[in-house]
Each structure stands twice: as structure tokens, then as C-alpha cells.
Amino acid sequence: MSDGPRALPKLVRAAGCVLWRRVPGTGALEVCLVHRPRYDDWSHPKGKLKRGESAAAAAVREAGEETGFAAELGAELPTLRYPVDGRPKQVRYWAAEAVSGAFAPSSEVDRVVWLAPAEARARLSHPRDRDLLDALTQRLEHH
Asked: What is the pTM for the complete model shown?
């Protein structure tokens, strides 16, 4: 056993999207939330980076895997940092427009919903995810 300094827990790197679309006809903004049965929560699509993968590529891949929709990345949103099982986690997020696709349930994500921002804000399980939604709506309203 070593009496030296303990190694810091390795940073968990992840990426995700706040996936959005415009309703045909009205142009109203809708945001996609995913339900993860393992945690019984509603959140934005996200996941860990694969070895050698960029955060932007991981964000697009995870959006596709979890929602079935191809995502076109837009502006980068705030990066979230929080502990998970005693390890620091860093998740980089982008605004991403859903361009095509359809949802198919999986063991990781069993449901998705498309909601107006106010409804999405109420449905999100974690307060930190609401900050991302607010950042997205501010960007889209001012561009």
C-alpha cells in the first residue's frame, strides 16, 4: 500500500444536445426530452465520449442513438459539471436542430417527448438541465 497522495478520480467526459425543432405551420419551438428508465428521469440526450471521439461528434451520435433523430449542431451551450458516483463529470452541450428521423424505444431510452419550452422546463428532472433549456431559448429568440 502506498502512503503517497491518492490519485484524483478520473474525469468522466460526456456530451449532449438540447435537441429542438420548429412545428410545421406555426413555427413554434419544441424541445426533445428523453426518459431513461434506469434513472426514471427526463433529460436531454447525452452520453460518454468514446476513445478518440470529439465532444461534438459524441453529442451528434448520442442524440441519434437516444432519439432516432439526426442532429445538426448549432451553438455550444454551457458545459455542466457535477459529481456522479464520487467522480467528477463534465458534459459539453450544443443546441442541435433535429433534421430527420424517428424514435424507436431501447433499454436506455424508452420514451421521448417533444414539448414547448415551458412544458419541457417543468418536465425536466434536474435543475441543471433547465439552465441549458434557458440558454437554448435565449439563443433562438435572439437570432
From this structure: 0.91
What's residue 143's pLDDT? 57
Q: Which residues of the chain have pLDDT under 70?
A: 1-5, 142-143
Instruction: Return d(Cα 96, Cα 35) in angstroms, integer.
Output: 18
The Cα–Cα gap between 21 and 142 comes to 16
- CATH classification code of 12-141: 3.90.79.10
For residue 131, how far is the Cα from the chain centroid? 12
Dmax (CA) for the chain in angstroms is: 67
Q: How far apart are CA 70 and CA 120, in angstroms?
A: 20
Q: How far apart are CA 4 and CA 120, in angstroms?
A: 48
pLDDT at 9: 81
